[in-house]
Amino acid sequence: MENNKLADCADCGLSRNERICMNPQGRASKGCPTASEKKEIEKAKSIYENPDIKEFARQASLQESQCYSGRDKKPYTMRPTKPRIQEICEFAQKMNYTRLGLIFCVGMAREAKMVSAILSKQGFEVVSIVCKVGCVPKEEIGIKEEEKIFIGQHETMCNPIAQALIANNEKTQFNILLGLCVGHDSLFFKFADAPTTVLAVKDRVTGHNPLAAIYTSGSYYAWLNQKTDK
Ligand code: SF4
Q: Comparing C-alpha atoms, which of 208, 192, 206, 194 is closest to residue 112?
């Protein structure tokens, strides 16, 4: 950070076309990292010079644009065409990955079976690993009886580090996360060797659509705008 203002793109007051990050003739807003973080932006550019990273980024960018149809039409209005599972398969094919890790939550076991079948039919070898792998009791990480979901019973901890180590051991080339909890997903990212993408995140009350609570934060979820005690 080159000044005391933290990056604040979320609160940028400029229209898309006025923004310096969207338009080389554009302007910087308050807390604009395009204006204040030039050193980091240059550092990032040098990281993209690594041929493997550059190719990964190039294929990701190709995949991004290929998710829209009719791009040769002028004026162009965006027409997205592909669901994320298709995007993931196409990107993995572009990168010549043959062995994929499907890293899932036991609460989405049914979905994992369907996703695994789709990936197999698309020609990938699938290594699938559930969060409860290892049957390690929650007491191992200091959880007390009254802190469990099912008080008074054995409860297996979610084990994202074991999921990552098993995926690493089985040499997955690309991992796909399906429904891992907040924090468990973070540990998986930290310990996985292969790059990882997310097919879906868990949201227990919105059918795994966390933006539902955001979209309704002006009405039914208005209480989210007040600081809550945990
Ligand atoms: S980089 Fe600057 S111009 Fe772009 S969204 Fe962030 S604050 Fe706004």
A: 208
Q: Say if ligand 1 is within 6 A of residue 200 CB.
A: no
Nearest CA to ligand 1 atom 4: 21
Supply the pTM of this predicted model.
0.95
pLDDT band at 5 (very low <50, low <70, confident <90, very high): confident
Find out whether the beta carbon of 20 lies less than 6 Å from any atom of ligand 1. Answer: yes
Q: In the chain, list all ranges with CATH 3.40.50.11840.
A: 83-230
> What's the CATH fold of domain 83-230?
Rossmann fold (3.40.50)
Atom of ligand 1 nearest to the CA of 9: 6
What is the model's pLDDT at position 228?
Answer: 80
Give the residue whose CA is nearest to atom 5 of ligand 1: 9
Q: Give the Å distance between the CA of 25 and the centre of ligand 1.
A: 13
Residue 117: C-alpha distances to residues 137, 220, 227 (Å): 30, 37, 43
Whole-number pLDDT of residue 3: 52
Q: Are the C-beta atoms of 106 and 136 separated by less than 8 Å?
A: no
pLDDT tens by residue, 83-101? 999 999 999 999 999 999 9
What is the C-alpha separation between 197 and 227, in angstroms, rounded?
A: 31
Q: Is 36 in the pocket of ligand 1 (CB under 6 A)?
A: no
194 lines ligand 1 (CB under 6 A): no
